Amino acid sequence: MHISIVEDDPVIAKAVRTAICEAGHDCTWVADGEAAIRDNTLLSSDIVVLDLMLPKIGGLEVLRAARAAGVRTPVIVLTAMGTVPHKLEGFEAGADDYLVKPFAIDELLARIEAIHRRTTLKPTMELEVGDLQLSLSTKRLSLAGRVIDLTPTEFSMLELLMRFTGQVVTRKMLCEHVWGFDWDGPTNVIEVHINRLRGKIDRGRDDSFIRTIRGRGYALATG
Amino acid sequence: MPSRLVRAIPWATLRVRLTLLNTAVVLLATLVSLVAVRVASRAALYREADAVLRGEVGEIAIALQDFSPDTNAVIAELRRKAVGHEERGWFTQLLDGNGTTIWKSDGCPREVADWPVSHEKIENLVQVGPYRFARRRITNSAQESFHVRIGMPTVFLDEDVDSLTRILIPVGLAISLLTPLAGYWLALRATSPIAGILRTAEHLKPTRLGDRLDVRGTHDELDRVSLTINRLLDQVAGYVERQQQFVTDAAHELRGPLAAIQNSLEVASAKERSSEDYRATLDVVLEETKHLSKMANDLLLLAEGESDAPIAFAEEVDLDAVLRQTASMFAGVAEDRAIQLLIRSPQSLCLPAEQRQLRQVVSNLLDNAIRFTPAGGCLTLSLALDAASQEAVLSVTDTGCGIQEQYQARVFDRFFQADAARDRSKTHRGGGLGLAICRSVVERHGGRIDLTSQIGQGTTVTVRLPLGPRRG
Fold this sequence. Notes:
The complex is a heterodimer of chains A (223) and B (472). Chain A is of the alpha/beta class. Chain A has nine helices and twelve strands. Chain A folds into two domains: 2-120, 3-Layer(aba) Sandwich (Rossmann fold), CATH 3.40.50; 126-220, Winged helix-like DNA-binding domain superfamily/Winged helix DNA-binding domain (Arc Repressor Mutant, subunit A), CATH 1.10.10.10. The two termini of chain A are 24 Å apart. In chain A, 33% of the residues are buried. Chain B has helices at 2-8, 14-67, 71-86, 110-113, 155-203, 221-270, 275-304, 319-336, 355-371, 405-408, 419-422, 434-444; strands at residues 91-96, 101-104, 123-128, 131-139, 145-153, 316-318, 340-344, 350-352, 378-386, 391-397, 448-454, 458-466. Chain B has a five-stranded antiparallel β-sheet with strand order 2-1-5-4-3. A five-stranded mixed β-sheet of chain B has the order 7-9-10-12-11, covered by helices on one side. The longest helix of chain B has 54 residues, at 14-67.
């Protein structure tokens, strides 16, 4: 997949580019809005990560111009302006997703994956990772054929982890997914449920399915 | 030259405009009253003259009745009377019943002498050209009719009116000259306090908001203007002070994590280290950076709340649902720490609000309660309707360590943390903004937040939110 990042801050741009490349995608860095329009960045990419505060021509203008020209490439907007009116303005200009700076790179990667999946794959009712089989229709988990009872919270968390197998899922993303609210306070309300989930699915295993990535979040092991 | 003068006058000032307006009004009033005086005086002079003429005619009529039917005696009598009259320009005319002149005095003008006799009225007054006369029809004892006319030239009356006018015109001119001057003086007097207000206002600066306008104690409109501006200045000064305090506090609070980051990086880069050491440093830096990000988000949330007028929310939010959703988020943690989480919410309670913000409030309150409640404690979340005040009353009660009395009033202040919360250990570490955000959100919803606490017993935070927009 070819991803372009339009961002004037070289530190952020390089970090994002490195992370995207390490996730196995191509990544091009475009430093300002004028270059983005000149090079037709939106048309030549699969997904575009677009900063709004750009020199010369702003991100919103780039986005509006491309949408007016009929370019439908998914765009994730990055900005330091996190208020609801700002977000609405972004969506009205044609953004597909919105991330407020500072953001976790893992979340950006997850959102890129989610958009990629949405635009390419059919929705699935079954998730399968190794011996884990999660049925979204019957809300049942089976591990190597054995059915395991999960609470709705545990089910919801495992679903998100399985959707992003091998990738880091942040606490904030889990919170948003499970409770519809991205609370990011001092108390770790996720950890308890992750530990219980581990207790249920890791029985008899040496290493856990769910790895803790210090300071970032959790990731489901691929095998 | 005149155009230079026109340009030199400060037309835009209130003073000049007041003066001009004042002058225009006074001049118009003067003109109207001078004209009225002239008209009224003229009418009075004529009325007086008419009365005299009528009197004379009346006297002659009585005399004629006595002398009739001897016409010659009548004429003699008229002639005798006319001697006195002629000195004043008066004239007399005697006519028979058919209108033929029997006798007239020397001064009787042709216009009057030729004026036809009218039988319609016994007595009236006629103006013929510059002459005015009273006339009367008399019937003597022999049933003979006569007409008597006594008149005068009105030129004397008009001269009197004109001489009055000659006095009125300079008076009018004097008023026209004095009015603008007096008007300007009055306008100057009225606007000089405004000039004072302006002078003070011009010296006001965002950095020097201590100055206040003089209140003269006259309780007039200008005093009210000064009072209003002073009140506004108080508010602005308070606002600016709060903002400055906010910035200072924020900068101060940002220093902690920044120092931690800087020191860790300095130590790490001082010499070659093992990759485990580098990883440990990176972990610290990442942790502190996240803390900074969280603080930045919280500060933005608080800054949004600085517009202190309560907002009208379009969305109806069920507080009961908010309570239960938030409690479910913390249920796992509470259970893990052997803290009982009770919900006492008998009914759904809808009010205009923003759901995310209310969840933020309840989350912050629960988070605080859980962090400061030891294992085996109990948290009670309750929601009730205060029918009298039409408010939803939401409270979070814990059996935690409690807050010392001297801190209780300050826990909703930004960045305030009692000593226990200053502890940078994981369980207790907050940003010091949680309760400030709660207060900001609650106040934006038109409600209020209070706290009662006893050391060793626990703390109750109570949030009261109006069910509808507050009236008045």
